[in-house]
Each structure stands twice: as C-alpha cells, then as structure tokens.
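User: I'm new to structure prediction. If I give you an amino acid sequence, what do you actually give back? Let's try with this one:
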Amino acid sequence: MSGLRIDHLGIIVADLDKAIERFRFLTDGEPAYTKDMPDVGLRIATFEAENISLELVEYAGSASEFAKEVMGDETGLNHISLGVDDLNKAINEFTKAGFKIMDGFPREGAHGQVAFFRRDNDTGLLFELCERAKI
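Assistant: Good question. You get back a string of structure tokens that encode the predicted 3D arrangement of the chain. For your 135 residues, that looks like this:
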C-alpha cells in the first residue's frame, strides 16, 4: 500500500493526568494536543516525540463502552494508527487485503476521520486508519 505512514501509537492509560505527568518527564515537553470526547467516553492527550506521536487514551464515563468494544479495556500499547491521504480508498485496499472493518466506522476521531479494523490474526495488531482533518 503506497503512501502509508505511522500517524501515532495509541496507548490506553488508567489515569490520563498521571500519564501526562509521566510523559512530560519522558518527552521533556507538554502535550501537543488534548481533547475530551464525552460522546464516546474518551479523554486524549497527544505528545510529539522526535519521530512519532504518542496518543494517551483514558476511558471516561459510561459512554466509553463503544470505545472499549473497539480497543479493548487493557492498559498499555493498544493500536497503530496509519496515516492516509484518502480514508475511503485506504479502507477499500485494507478490506481487499482481508482486514475486517469494525462496525460504526468510519467516524470522526480525535484527529480527523478514522476507521478501526478487527485485530489482525496474523500479526496480533489492532490497526486504525486516520485521515487527518485539513486545517
């Protein structure tokens, strides 16, 4: 698949505020981006490291059930988000290659339009495709 790049690594955390403190130390910086998404029960903070974005995700409230169905409820490294220029085209290419898109996608995510796919049996990885919002 051409034009593919890693957009970010998604990390599920139990306490976003504590995780932000830890990542301030690790990156020697502040979150580049924070967002509360009450409609899907998420709080998000993104740190920019030298060569990658790290997205910290905390489940918040009862609305997080959808997010837990998508990403699971274990803390730690959760998903690899692949940046794409054309989400619909990338979804078609992924499904032709045998990846199964999850119900409810594509939809608006923290950084633009996203689509999650069921965990890949061959690699054990959870993939997200992300078409960043044009600013």
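You can read the tokens as a compact description of the fold. Here is one thing that stands out. The helical segments are 16-27, 65-71, 87-96.
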